[in-house]
Design a protein that fits this description.
This protein is an all-beta fold. It has no helices and 12 strands. It has strands at about 5-10, 15-20, 30-35, 40-45, 55-60, 80-85, 90-95, 100, 110-115, 120-125, 135-145, 145-155. A hairpin with a 2-residue loop joins β11 (about 135-145) and β12.
Length: about 160
Amino acid sequence: MANLMILSKVKATAHYADCVAPAGVTNGNFVALGAQNADKTYACAAPAATTSKGVNIVCDIPISYEVEKLENDFTIATGAIIRTRTPEIGDVECYPVANFTATVAAAKGKFIIIDADALKGEIVSSIAGTESLVYIIDEVFTKAGVSMLKMRCINV
C-alpha cells in the first residue's frame, strides 16, 4: 500500500492516458501502452526492455472521503482504470522508495531506469547510455512515515 505521490514539477500540458491496471501496479511504476480499448482506455503491461519506447509512469490519485484514511492508504485494484503520464525531460516527482527495485540503495545521484519485464523501475548506480527512459534521484526523504525519493527525468 505504498501509493503516496507528489508531482513537484510537471507541466500543465503533460500528456495523460487512462489505462487498465495490471496486477500489482503502484504509483511510480513504468508501463508500456498497448492497444486502445473501445472505451478509449489503454491496455498496459510491464515494458519488455530497458530500451522500450512509449513507456508511461503510473500517477493515480484516488479521492477518499474517509477521514480515517491517509493519502497513502489505498491500493490499485487489478483492472481498475488508472492514470498514467508520458514522462518529459525536467519532470520532478516523488514516490515511495519501496515502489522501485533497489539494485543499489536509493540515494542522491543514483539513477532509475526501466527494469525489463517488470513494473517497478530499477535503482542503479550508473547507466549504460542505451536506456530509453532515465531519472536521477535528487533527494531521499520521509513523508507521513513513508521513505520517499524525489526523481528528475533526464532522458526520454
